[in-house]
Specification:
two-stranded parallel sheet; about 10% strand
Length: about 425
Amino acid sequence: MKRFLLLIVGALSLTGASAQLTIERCQELARENYPLIKQFGLVEQSSKYTLDNLMHSWLPQVNMSAQATYQNETPSFPDQMKAMLATSGLDMQGLAKDHYRLQLDVSQKIFDGGKASSEKALAKAQELEQKAQNDVDLYGLKKRVNELFFGVLLMDDRIKQTNMTIEMLNGNLDKLQSHVRNGVATSADESMLRAEILTVEQNKTSMEWNREAYKHMLEILIGEQVADRTLIRPDFTEPATNVVTRPELRLIDAKIGTLNAREKAINASVMPVISAFGQAFYGYPGYNTFENMLNHKWSLNAMVGVRASWSLSSLYDRKNNLNKLTTARQQAELQRDVFLLNTRLEASHENDEISRLRELIASDGSIVDLRRDVRLAEESKLRNGIIDIHRLVERITDESIAAQSQIIHKIELLKTIYDLKNTVNQ
């Protein structure tokens, strides 16, 4: 029985946990749900294919060919030499004019000057750069999640405060109706108070629609239902440091890494390539020309060797290409400096905004208390038969506005703190 109860308690706790959502969990879900996340797998797959192809460049390269030709002239002996050979019983007619060849060529690279390794490094650098770009694109989701998450919290708090205002107005309406029945107040006073209640209820309806809109957009973004789940209010803890660790900086590093890999590829492109090769063919004529002059039979022929090739034309543009890479690196470093400057300015503004909001919140409580005291004094007059509904509604409205301002300042403070965390990625 005890074990059964523990299982029930555990199940209930898991259900309660699943019915809650933190802002961090929403950010994780948005990242997982966003279509761009699939791009990481595609980038890795594409890079794998490229690396496999580069490894194939070290495999023996095999080519097969077949050809048949006819030419108007072929090597042959002079007529006098043919006559001399004929006396010895040799009919040296020369090569036939129709030639045939079935050929197999095999080449094995021995030294490529570092081309394959530099291209492999370039492919890996490009993969890192594409992943870093995806991280930058996905990072923008955090701010969108924050706006929707705090939008829901703001509407929740404002609706609660509006309900309190409606309850307050209805309580005063009950008192006023008693005075109307006793002839102390007029029906016009009652109508005025009822109109105020309807106006506040209209405002509440607008807030409820806004809250549902925020929730719906958040559901689309994270790919899960939000309607029946509680959004956990985060604390007011500011980031421990303003050191910037944004993915944009990693993207700049990845771009510089790609430029460095391109430089190695350019240097490797001017190196000679050495390879061993073998060639075999079956056809006519073969390598033994004199034998082919005597008879026109097909034969098997083969040779092996070592070949060196060096493309000197790649030297023409090497200097300019290296200079272009140097300029691109300087531009990347400049982008880093500009990004850091703008980010620090933004973080400074957000820190100032946090200080401003904390100062406002410190006085919000006193303003609400004072407005409440004034409103209670007007309600006391109503209870004692001193009727001034217009003044009472003004005092209730003043208190409601003060309470709403306090709510807005608190949610703004939370959002600004998370904007700061997003700015510096802490």
